[in-house]
């Protein structure tokens, strides 16, 4: 070790063998029974059920129950679950005051990270993560309160009064109400918008060990407060290489502006000296079409048929068509991912671009908390503690101040 900093051959004698796998490209960090995905086939299963069937036949809360509990609910279990979730939606008045500490134009993901982390201060005393009942209550609180917090972020951004949740509405209906109703005016919930949002939430609900879920597991592995662990996940999701991609896609389409500019931007994406990437393209695991992107493209057409065509849709479809014929994208198996079309749907529903990633965070909350519960309940749980391959200076002696030239 002292003689050569990269002599791995001798290092193992002291420390044993370990893998060097930047980005965890081929390292399983855990065992999990929640989500299965086959990147070559483009297949995604939640607890064994294909995503296509769940998106067509179930609601987001049904799927949330499935992810959390391992089985689909019976009719009675679903009614009970919906009742529990709708009765945990309120946030404490003191929590609402947190928002005043943020600039009115703060990014909602910045506010969400802070506000969700602060739940640790509100629900700490009676929290015993070793008690399965408390874990369940934590999961219910998070699933229920996340839309309320996201809507409060939006209202803070547009400087309108916060709208209290309504228990008589569906999960997504209530979110639309909290975002778009005002104290002076009711908001009429369009069933097409409500359904489209619900399906998007199902598609975003879990995706095994993606960066934000792995972050939640790693943060939670120290037995940290679960609200703090989820806040870490939200912070990770924000990045444009992950959940921030839906916002980045819309900004990219606006930047491209017109079908005639597509070739120029494709060339930029291929140029290794240019940092520009086709946002919404490529995935670490899918080397075939992302099955969620296929479903989303279908919803996109339905929503735009109702809300009027968005020229970005035409642009996105042409971009996809041209990229999928291009050798660079074909060779690297770069297909549209879940976020390529989701932003166009959200935009059509009147959701502002900055709120796209908070929408993703609401949907992914059930995935994060299901993984947290699975990890914390595992009797073989260990604190997450990766190793490193040290490439710094070899051991040396500290010189006196006058000797450092
Ligand atoms: N545009 C242009 N080239 C790309 C793109 C892209 N969107 N994505 C990957 N590539 C290229 C890489 O430059 C690399 O080329 P090289 O082999 O010549 O060096 C090759 O394809 C492999 O890409 P990696 O970056 O090694 O793949 P990785 O698995 O590490 O990254 C990622 C996956 C982060 C999703 C990447 O494809 C990307 O940045 N995409 C755009 C952002 C995006 O849409 N993110 C959302 C992902 S889905 C989600 O999180 C919900």
Automatic annotation (TrEMBL):
PROSITE patterns: CITRATE_SYNTHASE
Active site: residue positions: 283, 339
Gene3D superfamilies recorded: 2.20.28.60, Citrate Synthase, domain 1, Cytochrome P450-Terp, domain 2
Keywords: Transferase, Tricarboxylic acid cycle
One of the protein's GO biological processes: tricarboxylic acid cycle
Pfam name, any one: Citrate_synt
SUPFAM superfamilies linked: Citrate synthase (SSF48256)
Record pathway: Carbohydrate metabolism; tricarboxylic acid cycle; isocitrate from oxaloacetate: step 1/2
Record-level Gene Ontology MF annotations: citrate synthase activity
Catalytic activity: oxaloacetate + acetyl-CoA + H2O = citrate + CoA + H(+)
One cellular-component annotation, GO: cytoplasm
Family: Belongs to the citrate synthase family.
Protein name (Swiss-Prot/TrEMBL): Citrate synthase
The organism of origin for this protein: Plasticicumulans lactativorans
């Amino acid at each position: 070790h002292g003689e050569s900093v990269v002599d791995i051959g001798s290092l193992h004698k002291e420390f044993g063998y370990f893998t060097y796998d930047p980005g965890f490209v081929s390292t399983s960090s855990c065992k999990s029974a929640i989500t299965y995905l086959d990147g070559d086939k483009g297949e995604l299963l939640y607890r064994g059920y294909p995503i296509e069937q769940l998106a067509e036949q179930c609601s987001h809360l049904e799927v949330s129950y499935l992810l959390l509990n391992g089985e689909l609910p019976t009719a009675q279990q679903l009614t009970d679950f919906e009742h529990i979730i709708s009765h945990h939606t309120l946030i404490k008045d003191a929590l609402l005051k947190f928002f005043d500490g943020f600039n009115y134009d703060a990014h909602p993901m910045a506010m969400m990270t802070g506000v969700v982390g602060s739940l640790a201060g509100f629900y700490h005393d009676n929290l015993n993560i070793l008690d399965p009942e408390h874990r369940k209550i934590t999961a219910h609180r998070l699933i229920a309160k996340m839309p309320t917090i996201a809507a409060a972020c939006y209202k803070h951004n547009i400087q309108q009064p916060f709208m209290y949740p309504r228990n008589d509405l569906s999960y997504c209906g209530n979110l639309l109400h909290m975002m778009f109703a005002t104290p002076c005016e009711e908001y009429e919930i369009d069933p097409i918008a409500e359904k489209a949002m619900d399906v998007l939430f199902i598609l975003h609900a879990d995706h095994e060990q993606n960066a934000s879920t792995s972050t939640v597991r790693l943060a939670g592995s120290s037995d940290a407060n679960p609200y703090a662990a989820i806040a870490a996940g939200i912070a990770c999701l924000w990045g444009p290489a992950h959940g921030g991609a839906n916002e980045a896609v819309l900004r990219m389409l606006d930047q491209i502006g017109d079908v005639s500019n597509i070739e120029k931007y494709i060339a930029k994406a291929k140029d290794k000296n240019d940092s520009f990437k086709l946002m919404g393209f490529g995935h670490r695991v899918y080397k075939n079409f992302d099955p969620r992107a296929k479903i989303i493209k279908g919803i996109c057409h339905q929503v735009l048929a109702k809300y009027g065509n968005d020229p970005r849709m035409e642009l996105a479809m042409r971009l996809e068509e041209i990229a999928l014929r291009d050798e660079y994208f074909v060779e690297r198996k770069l297909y549209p991912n879940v976020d390529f079309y989701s932003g166009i749907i959200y935009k059509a529903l009147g959701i502002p671009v900055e709120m796209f990633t908070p929408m993703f965070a609401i949907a992914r909350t059930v995935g994060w908390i299901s993984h947290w519960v699975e990890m914390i309940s595992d009797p073989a749980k260990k604190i997450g503690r990766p190793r490193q391959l040290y490439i710094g200076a070899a051991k040396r002696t500290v010189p006196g101040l006058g000797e450092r030239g």
